[in-house]
Specification:
alpha+beta; about 10% strand; 4 strands; two-stranded antiparallel sheet; about 45% helix; globular
Length: about 110
C-alpha cells in the first residue's frame, strides 16, 4: 500500500494543472478504495471531475443531478465519508436515485 501512496503522490506533484490533478483524484485512487464512480465536487465550481470522463459536461443530466445532490449535502453540512441513501435527499432528487446510483452510496 505504501507504494500506491508514493506513486499517487508523485503523480499529483507532476500534475500540470488543476484539471489534471482532479482527473488523477477520481481515476487513480481506485487502488486505494474500490468504487464504481468517483466525483470531485467543489462548492464554487460544481462537478469538477468524474471518473472515466476526460472533461465534465455540466449540461448532461447526470452531472446536473450530481451537482444538485452535492449542493443539498453541502447546505445540510453533511460530512463525508458516509453512507448515503435516497432517503437522505429531497423527494425530487431521491426520485432520480435509481437512474444514476445503486441502492446506497458510501
Amino acid at each position: 500500500m505504501a507504494g500506491v501512496f508514493s506513486d499517487l503522490a508523485r503523480k499529483a506533484r507532476q500534475a500540470e494543472s488543476d484539471r489534471e490533478l482532479g482527473f488523477l483524484l477520481v481515476n487513480e485512487t481506485l487502488a486505494l478504495a474500490h468504487y464504481r464512480q468517483a466525483a470531485l465536487w467543489l462548492a464554487d465550481q460544481g462537478v469538477w471531475a468524474l471518473s472515466g470522463v476526460v472533461q465534465v459536461d455540466a449540461h448532461v443530466p447526470y452531472a446536473q443531478w450530481l451537482d444538485a445532490v452535492a449542493h443539498h449535502l453541502h447546505q445540510q453540512g453533511a460530512n463525508m465519508p458516509r453512507v448515503l441513501t435516497a432517503g437522505d435527499l429531497p423527494a425530487a432528487l431521491a426520485g432520480e436515485w435509481g437512474q444514476w446510483w445503486p441502492a446506497h452510496w458510501s
